[in-house]
Task: inverse folding
């Protein structure tokens, strides 16, 4: 792995002889990302970097606030996965209030909220952000490559995407109390149960949701089957993988212990307690990006970086507890023919398996009477520190807080899913740049190949600032002195 | 519960300086509508950003208004009528109001007459409050929102916007009075 990794991170040629291409900001990812490519006189790629150009400072924003505000405040970190931050913070602060084991009703209501989040996020990513590329082709007309284009050509697929997303949002609304800025999870439990009427409302639709989720897996499988060389090789690189797994080794998005495998699938670490994450994971800072580069401490920065998210989770676990998703997982694993699948485009396949699992799990939970239970929270011996880890839609999410005797947060450390995937995303776009861009006249379609590789990871690069007129797609071609030679910009 | 004939969708992050304009104005409008006894005619929806499912919030309405802070919006605000995107362009996780309308059309639902009120903001940094300029713009925008809610008819809203669909119109507090 180390021999290939990091190639193209730093140009070997002298900077003055190169010209720079910037994709700024990257479209259809959350927040503000920028990709720069340095090309030599022959259009050969010499350096490729994914930069994160906005620094959030969210951890400092949280310091000094009362701990009980935190599960609500952290939702403002991200407009795409606020529930993930809400739950990770609540889990961390469970330890602060001494709630070491939540009542069954509280944990199941949180799980329902979280699986609703997984469902809606994965539906959004596949149907809205990625299916345009996958259904029309990476270099197809840019005007078609979006959800509206999909809707025109595949109206049923588009409609299902909207309704799957809507269902997931409804699960969140009912468990969190509101569509946004929910307050459902509190340190030590939850503050509301599901009423029978609310549960019946969700049950009325859940079989359809499971069916559509299953159909979505089949769409992805057909895409893979239609062009195996593309799907198996596009941007492919080998790496370690990391995720939570449940106590029985099964896929678990809400709770568990950390497991890491090497690129061949051999288990490196298993059953690692999440509160000790700082012993397992270190982070490297590089001068050209605000986003850190995490790695497994025992292996060091060159060999210890790893993938997280659906592709890691589906292969890291031993099984999936719901039958339809487990059947799909086995088929996915078989596709690897005994090896880990590292292809970035396989993220989409794994993501849809996870969406199916989320739908099945929601169905199971809705039939569980604990959802209407009355014991919703607990507490115990007060502590000053807590770590909460969940598997967010994009991967492992770590929240860590220290709280003083006045109940104020004195330290906050967050490692978000996209940060774990920082090095993998850089590696993927370097592979793509070398394969598709080397020596060729750049076009929007070719540059979109870079974005397709990034989007496979479903990165969430910043948070929810989104004012009207922001975030158009910009492509800039600059000379070595930084002068803009040409610029392309979308109208959105 | 019957569907309110008018939906107002505001988005923004309350912790991001002037990005709070949308949710702040929505909260204020909710209180005002209650005081005026007008709440039943309106559904107010707040979110971080507009997404595909918001298309379903538009279905069956008589009028719709999107409300947001605008970084490049001419001060103090802009009111314009919008139509579904005819030629979609690359997008981000967040949709424009025009793209939300296009999603609605593509799933076979007619779109209500839809307007966008963009309120000019200046600073969008984490942890900041509203800038002084945004606070001034918010006052004028709220007066306009009151006028819109007192006359929830498409012709009245078009008269307030006055421009061609999709065109930008500059407003001042005096115009809204």
Result:
């Amino acid at each position: 792995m180390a021999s290939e990794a990091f190639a193209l991170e730093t140009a070997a040629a002298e900077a003055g002889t190169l010209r720079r291409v910037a994709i700024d900001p990257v479209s259809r990812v959350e927040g503000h990302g920028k990709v720069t490519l340095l090309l030599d006189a022959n259009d050969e790629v010499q350096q490729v970097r994914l930069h994160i150009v906005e620094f959030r400072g969210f951890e400092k924003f949280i310091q000094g606030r009362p701990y009980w505000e935190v599960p609500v405040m952290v939702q403002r970190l991200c407009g795409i996965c606020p529930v993930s931050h809400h739950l990770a913070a609540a889990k961390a602060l469970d330890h602060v209030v001494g709630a070491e084991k939540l009542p069954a009703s509280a944990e199941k209501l949180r799980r329902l909220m979280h699986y609703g989040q997984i469902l809606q996020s994965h539906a959004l990513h596949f149907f809205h952000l990625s299916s345009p590329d996958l259904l029309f082709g990476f270099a197809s007309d840019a005007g078609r490559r979006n959800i509206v284009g999909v809707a025109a050509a595949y109206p049923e697929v588009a409609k299902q995407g909207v309704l799957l997303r809507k269902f997931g949002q409804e699960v969140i609304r009912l468990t969190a109390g509101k569509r946004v800025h929910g307050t459902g999870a509190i340190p030590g439990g939850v503050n509301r149960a599901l009423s029978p009427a609310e549960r019946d409302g969700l049950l009325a639709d859940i079989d359809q949701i499971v069916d559509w989720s299953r159909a979505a897996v089949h769409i992805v499988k057909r895409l893979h089957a239609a062009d195996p060389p593309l799907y198996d090789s596009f941007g492919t690189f080998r790496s370690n993988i990391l995720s939570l797994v449940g106590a029985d080794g099964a896929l678990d998005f809400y709770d568990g212990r950390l497991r890491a495998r090497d690129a061949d699938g051999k288990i490196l670490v298993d059953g690692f307690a999440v509160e000790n994450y700082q012993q397992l994971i270190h982070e490297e800072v590089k001068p050209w990006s605000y986003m850190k580069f995490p790695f497994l401490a025992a292996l060091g920065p060159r060999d210890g970086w790893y993938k997280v998210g659906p592709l890691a989770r589906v292969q890291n676990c031993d099984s999936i507890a719901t039958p339809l998703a487990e059947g799909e997982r086995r088929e996915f694993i078989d596709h690897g023919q005994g090896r880990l699948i590292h292809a970035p485009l396989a993220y989409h396949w794994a993501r849809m398996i996870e969406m199916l699992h989320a739908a099945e799990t929601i169905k199971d939970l809705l039939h569980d009477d604990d959802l209407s239970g009355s014991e919703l929270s607990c507490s115990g011996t007060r502590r000053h520190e807590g770590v909460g880890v969940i598997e967010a839609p994009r991967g492992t999410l770590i929240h860590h807080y220290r709280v003083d005797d006045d109940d104020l947060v004195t330290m906050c450390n967050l490692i978000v899913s996209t940060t774990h995937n920082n090095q993998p995303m850089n590696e993927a776009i370097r592979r793509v740049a070398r394969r598709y861009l080397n020596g060729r006249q750049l076009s929007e379609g070719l540059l979109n190949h870079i974005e397709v590789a990034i989007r496979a990871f479903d990165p969430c690069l910043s948070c929810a600032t989104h004012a009207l007129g922001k975030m158009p797609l910009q492509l800039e071609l600059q000379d070595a002195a930084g002068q803009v030679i040409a610029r392309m910009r979308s109208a959105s | 519960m019957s569907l309110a004939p008018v939906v107002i969708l505001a988005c923004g992050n309350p912790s991001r300086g002037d990005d709070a304009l949308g949710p702040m104005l929505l909260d204020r409008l909710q209180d005002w509508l209650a005081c005026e006894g007008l709440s039943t005619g309106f559904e107010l929806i707040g979110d971080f950003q507009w997404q595909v499912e918001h298309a379903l919030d538009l279905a069956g309405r008589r009028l719709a208004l999107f409300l947001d802070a605008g970084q490049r919006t001419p001060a103090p605000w802009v009111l314009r009528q919008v139509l579904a995107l005819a030629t979609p362009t690359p997008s981000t996780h967040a949709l424009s109001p025009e793209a939300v309308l296009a999603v609605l059309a593509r799933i076979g639902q007619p779109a209500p007459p839809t307007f966008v009120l963009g309120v000019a903001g200046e600073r969008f940094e984490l942890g900041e409050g509203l800038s002084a300029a945004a606070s001034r713009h918010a006052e004028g925008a709220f007066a306009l929102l009151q006028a819109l809610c007192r006359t929830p008819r498409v012709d009245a809203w078009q008269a307030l916007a006055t421009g061609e669909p999709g065109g930008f119109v500059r407003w001042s507090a005096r115009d809204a009075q």
Observations:
- The CA atoms of residues 148 and 157 of chain B lie 6 Å apart.
- Confidence is low (pLDDT under 50) at residues 163-177 of chain B.
- The two ends of chain B are 33 Å apart (CA to CA).
- The beta strands of chain B are 6-11, 42-47, 63-70, 77-82, 114-120, 170-171.
